[in-house]
Amino acid sequence: MRIRTSLAAALACTALTSPTLADDGFPIVDEPLELTIHMHWPRAQGYGVGGDTSKIYPVEEVAREKTGIWLIDATAGKNTKDNNEAMNLLLAQGKLPDIVGGNRIQQPVNQYGPEGAFQPLDDLIEEHAPHIKAFFDERPELRQAISAHDGKMYYIPYLPDGKYGRAWYIRRDWLDKLGLETPDNVDELYEVLKAFRDQDPNGNGQKDEVPYFARDWEEVLRLLTLWDARSSGSDTYHDFYVDDGEVVHPYAVEAYRDGIANIAKWYAEGLIDPEIFTRGSSSREYLLGENLGGVTHDWFASTSGYNQALADKIPGFDFSPFLPPESAGGVRMEEHRRIPIKPDGWAISFSNEHPEETIRYFDYWFTEEGRNLSNFGVEGKTWNMVDGEPVFTDEVLSSSTPVNSQMYLEGAQIYRGYWMDYRYEWQWTSEGAREGIKLYDTEDLLVDQFLGVALNKDEQEVYDRFWPSIQTYMLERQQAWILGSGDVTADWDSYVSTLDRMGLPQVLEAMNSAYQRQYN
Amino acid sequence: MSGVRLDGIVKAYGAVQVVHGIELDVQEGEFVVLVGPSGCGKSTTLRMIAGLEEISGGTLTIDGRKMNRVAPKDRDVAMVFQNYALYPHLNVAENIAFGLRIRKEKKELIKSSVDEVGGILGLTDYLERRPADLSGGQRQRVAMGRAIVRRPKVFLFDEPLSNLDAKLRTQMRAEIKRLHNRLGATSIYVTHDQVEAMTLADRIVVMHDGRIEQVGTPMELFLNPVNTFVAGFLGSPPMNMQRATVVAGEGGPIAEFKGQSLPLPALEALRPGQEIVIGIRPEYAELRTAPEPGTMQVDVDLVETLGSEALIHCMLGDDPFVIRAETIGQPLKVGSRVSFAVRPDLLRLFDARSGRALPGQRAGEALSFGAEAAAQ
Amino acid sequence: MTHVPEIQGNRTEELVIEAREAQRERAPSRVARVGDHLKREWQLYVMLIPTVIWLLVFLYKPMYGLQIAFKDYSIFRGISGSPWIGLEHFQTLFNNDQFLRALKNTVIMSAYGLLFGFPVPILLAVMFNEILSPWYRKTAQTIVYLPHFISSVIIAGIVITAFSPSAGIVNTFLGWFGVDPIYFLTKPEWFRPIFIGTGIWQEAGFQSIVYLAAIAGISPTLYESAVVDGASRWQMIWKITIPSILPTIIIMLIIRIGNILEISFEMIILLYQPATYATGDVVNTFIYRQGIQGGQYDLAAAAGLFNAVMAFVLVISANTLSKRFSRTSLW
User: Fold this and answer.
1) C229/B83 touch (CB, cutoff 8 Å), yes or no
2) Within an 8 Å CB–CB cutoff, is residue A473 touching chain C?
3) CATH of domain A166-233+250-322
4) What residues of A are in contact with residue C96 (Cβ under 8 Å)?
5) What is the pLDDT of residue A495?
6) Reported confidence tier of residue A16, pLDDT bands at 50, 70, 90
7) Which chains lie within 8 Å of chain C at 3 or more CB pairs, if any?
8) % helix, strand, coil for chain B, step of 5
């Protein structure tokens, strides 16, 4: 290892003195070129297997061979898992590594990029990165979404693939037992939940069923969509959404009043878990395991697993996805979906002396070869090409370690700027979830997401001054109404005028001016 | 009748017995000193009288009343502790008044009592001070004030002077004595210092290993110790002890040791060939200018001059031998040989095996005035 | 002792001059004395160095960063590169109703915490001291120390479960008396009692250690003497134990007052809900929510500085009062 490192160092020196640039294609350089990288993400604080930077990812070994670029770890904040803290540490050092990557880099990169900490990528992509360019040319809205307030792009994001995230689940065996049909609209759902509450579907003689429950209490707000209101415009809770080309907030529109009034009614009637606000992340495990929970809204992948896990414990247990019930206004909507761009990825710092080589290196991961490498690992080791499709080996698929965890150790699926391939996930998605996804694919359920706006300095100031307090106030009132201390219909006018007084119009104005600049 | 009676008092911690059946009768108004080396059980005995330690066996009677199971506060005793046990957050007056306050006495009575006691102990000017601002002697006086203000039947003192320097100790000793003469309360006093015992006591109780060795007036104990332990414990410097063999001589029994011989008083208990220990107090050895019959010879090792007197540390063969003599004009040379004589009636003879004094000795009649003086 | 010579007639002037000269000579000699002292006791000063360095590096150097409270701070530009903006952050804070509410909640919760939480460890220590059986005493102590060593997350979980309306022990108990289940953790009026009670349960046992140590330092003869004087156990507690540990109590009180604005932030984060912000939101949680939106370190620093100044004033006042009225003080 030591020999190799010193050799690399020697080669790097030569590379520095006479960078031999291949005009096109790969490798990018004839002589190895070393670039330093900060790579801080939840699974590994450092660019090396499991964060151990002395162990080089198998994927990195292949990438070195293919591109001639050698990434050398220079991660700050290895001792903290808090990516925010690590980023602050890195920025406070002043001198940045050539590449800064990891999770949640969008905010700092877009804030400090215009201040000169990171290099704008637009021209570099235009001239040197044909594959990245092709990707964004096809999806101009994504390019707009990740741009900073100066309209420039400062990072290459991790781009998730696949559409669905959360779905509606119901105890189909309870429906059968009570002789009920799958609820198809909000009124039917109301009747089903009442039946779950009153008719003892778990048969223990006690009225202990919890008709609607959720791991994250915010999922109770998904019920808003059943009355044509919204709970969020993105996969972040309580986010703004775009209505007819205008940014609005879901908790400040009329439909919200009626939605909350109905949720409060359901809560008061015992159709919603009375402890939904404090039960916490283990509630799904508990309520399903104890044969108590009836309906929830949760991720396809993890929720489908319970049919198998609880088959022995609860005979006939069948917790399956069903289509979102039609709203009072006749709309069938699945509000939650995978976000097409993540705030994770990588950027080129101002101190990088090889921006062209670096952007070409970034581009490598958008080639078919690079994309397979970043999704499936090293060909022949973890996967093989079968009929033109990358297929994981049986060894990978049958291992007791989840496929994603295996990939993390290979150096695939880590938070570099890459384009995820849904075929990676599909191969190890359970049969139940696959069926659910097929069911959801039969209708056009998804709505466009609000991908965020890049605020300029003035807008940011307005946002920082007003928004945190407004959101606090919104959530306080929201919970109070649901819990029944306060009546949303009676309070509505004062609520709206308080929001006005607290500066919501100014925040919306700032959001909209940024939105217009960015997307039109 | 506020006497204290200990009848077969035993203290045991689990299986370990530390006080083995004490028999003691303290008369009303008497000042009794328990003395002995550390660990002899004297403090434990005192604490049993106070009620701070449970009595494992035997009977304790105070003022004719059985007290074994009576709470300390109902025994009507007061105790003075070695480290004074003053409350650091209270001033002198409050410290003295503490016991009265606890008993919810009337304010005026408390005030007058405190003033009176303060006057008796010379604390009037210090009543507002806190213990931290007092000298050791003053603290000791406050501690005594706390005891006497309650006018208890019995005073108990647990080494009250041990924390004081030598000069203060002498002074306080005299004050305690005077106080006792004035108040006349029954007092039981524990010390390891035989000088305190000798000077304060009406009667001394010498204790050793949880047993009483001897009870008596200071002079009785000084002159007629019943065994080698008491003989060695009382007196400063301690009695010289010399092992010897009894042989029959012309004028009576003679002790032989280290090539020397000494005529002994004719006691019935003496048998030729018997192994005995001869006890000679340093005070009773009379220096002679030249060897005479009946004198002993020793080699001078060291001379300590005390002013009017000197301690002459000598060697008798391999054993040390101390002589207390009036200061002599001519300094004794170290290494020189000196002779001394002892009045036979001032010798104390002990059986070498048991350590007990041989029966029939009645020593020092001429010196008995000392005992009377001590009893005053 | 300085001996003042009797000064007579015209000798006065000479003496004054002499004295002045002596003074002048003494001045350098004092420096020399310090030098001698250092030379003689240098080992002690060497041992002091790590602590001094620690203080400088971890407590004094960061004070440099406090200036960002008065700056429009950008991490990348650095502290010196960020422009001054005066008291703007403080204005922002004090113009925010939610900050003022959080400040009010902080003070109220601290005051309650002090009122109810401060005496408990003292009481516990005194009670432990009265337990005669060593086995029973050790067991009891371990049981009350235990919560201190459990992580806040688990403590919060226990509290949430205990107050759960469906399965919680508290509601089960209330149910025996015919009280309908109460969803305590979403009721603003219950937040403070639950939070303060949790704090007491978690820390009182451990905090009692310092008082137990103080009690252990009381000479047993004080109690024996009191027993002979006829004091009851109750009187001994009030007349001996409490007065003897009073200096410790006062010192702890002063320290506690200095930390009055430091509310256990993570416990609140774990226990509060938007529904209980009205009583449960404190300065630290306010800053946390505020900061998480966009790394407003400058604003957080302003709030932190405000906290620190308040704490400083409180400690100084508490210490001064204590010095005047009880002779005990921190310095």
Assistant:
1) no
2) yes
3) 3.40.190.10
4) 469
5) 96
6) very low
7) A, B
8) 30, 35, 35
H-helix or E-strand spanning residue A104: none
Q: Which residues of A touch C278 (CB under 8 A)?
A: 476
pLDDT above 90: percentage of residues in chain A: 68
Which of B50, B82, B102 lies nearest to residue C230, judging by beta carbons? Answer: B102
Q: Is C177 exposed, middle or buried (0-12, 13-18, 19+ CB in 10 A)?
A: exposed
Residue from the list C98, C183, C185 with its beta carbon closest to the beta carbon of A469 = C98
Of C98, C186, C294, the CB nearest to A472: C98
Environment class of A130 (CB within 10 Å of its CB; exposed 0-12, middle 13-18, buried 19+): middle
DSSP tag of A204: S
CA distance B261 to chain C (A): 55
Least confident of A189-193, A365-369, B170-174: B170-174
Residue spans of the domains in chain C: they are 4-68, 87-325
How many helices and strands in chain A, by DSSP H and E?
22, 14
Look up tokens 């000077």; give the residue: B199
Superfamily of domain C87-325: MetI-like (1.10.3720.10)
Under 8 Å between Cβ of B278 and B241: yes
Of C75, C186, C294, the CB nearest to A464: C294
Are A252 and A471 within 8 A, CB to CB?
no
Q: Do chains A and B touch (3 or more CB pairs under 8 A)?
A: no
Q: Is any Cβ of chain B less than 8 angstroms from the Cβ of C292?
A: no
Contacts of residue A209 in chain C, CB cutoff 8 Å? none
* pLDDT (tens digit per residue) in A408-441: 999 999 999 999 999 998 998 888 889 999 999 9
Q: Does A278 touch chain C (CB under 8 A)?
A: yes
Q: Exposure string (b/e) for B47-83, b if CB count within 10 Å is 16 or more?
A: bbbbbbbebeebebebbeeebeeeebbebbbbbbbbb
The tens digit of pLDDT for each residue in A351-369 reads: 999 999 999 999 999 999 9
Alpha-carbon distance of C330 to C323, in angstroms, equals 9
pLDDT at B164: 85
DSSP state of B99: H
Q: In this structure, which CATH number among 3.40.190.10, 3.40.50.300, 3.30.499.10, 3.40.50.1220 belongs to the domain A2-162+340-421? A: 3.40.190.10
Distance CA A87, CA A118 (A): 13
* Residues in A 71-130 with any Cβ partner in C closer than 8 A: 84, 88, 91-92, 94, 107-108, 111-112, 115-117
Give Cβ neighbours of residue C9 (< 8 Å, ≥ 6 apart): none
CA distance C247 to C268: 32
| Cβ atoms within 10 Å, residue B140 | 26
Looking at B125-202, which runs of residues are DSSP E strands?
154-158, 186-191
- Look at A25 and B161; give whichever has higher pLDDT: B161
Report which of residues C18 and A390 the model is more confident about.
A390
Interface contact C227-B98, CB threshold 8 A: no
For residue A298, which of A452, A172, A158, A433 has the smallest C-alpha distance?
A433
Other CB atoms within 10 Å distance of the CB of residue A61: 13
Which among C76, C157, C165 has CB closest to A274? C165
CB A42 within 8 A of CB A81: yes
Q: Which of A108, A117, A483 sits opposite C275 (nearest CB)?
A: A483
Chain C residue set in contact with A, beta carbons under 8 Å: 74-78, 92, 96-98, 157, 160, 164-166, 183, 185-186, 273-275, 277-278, 281, 289-290, 293-296, 299
Check residue B224 and give its pLDDT.
87
Q: For residue A485, is pLDDT > 80?
A: yes
User: Are B144 and B164 within 8 A, CB to CB?
Assistant: no
